[in-house]
Amino acid sequence: MNIIMLIASVVVLLSSSAAQAGTINYGTGSTDPWGNTTNNQAMNSAFGAGNWNLSHGFSTTVFNGAEFVFLDGSDSNAIEFASFLTDNGAVIANYVAGGGRLFLNAAPNLGGSFDMGFGVRLNYRGFSDNVTVTAAGVAAGLTTGNLATSYSGYSFGHATVSGDISNLIKTEDGSTVFGAMQFGKGFVAFGGETTTNFHSPSPDAAALRVNELLYVANAETKDVPEPASLALIGMGLLAAGAARRKAARK
Fold it and tell me: For 197, which of 82, 131, 154, 223 is 20 to 30 Å away at the CA?
């Protein structure tokens, strides 16, 4: 393969790895979190009724052709959710790295702490009754609509999340109950929040969840090549240098 062909193949790889616009999916366990459908209502408000898909029982099919995926493993779904994340970590990481947008949330009511992937850990038990939208959260648009920055609940969160993520909503001790990060060409957010029927004040709390969904679904990311792509670019540059040296010796 000559140098021009090698560089061209790298360009094709980089451009093809970006996620294409597709469906919007919400998935949860065998039962609705906390026995209510406030997440469904938030999805309707964010994307319009009929413009998203609901699935029960966690499956990697939610990532097929998806533009945005919201997965909630709260309440009695926590153990099932933790196993799903562990068993399918590579699939989930590849989806986000290729340009997908993903929101992973779990407010467990059983089980224990677990890894959510991406170097992030969900810490249970981490109950929080009072939380605050941070300055970074305000800048991200979580309070769009002149929403309150302080919320309460019994409980607002059942867990905290930790890792190399931005702290967008914090607990009283400064821990993160909602945070996010860029990963590859995509974006992923993590939460330990219960459903909004437990949150106050109303209706701001319901609108806050809508803003979270919209924030993740529409997050802008920097065009950072994935590690494998960087390696190919490096190979291309090395090959180009070798060719120049070979030509100079003739």
Answer: 82
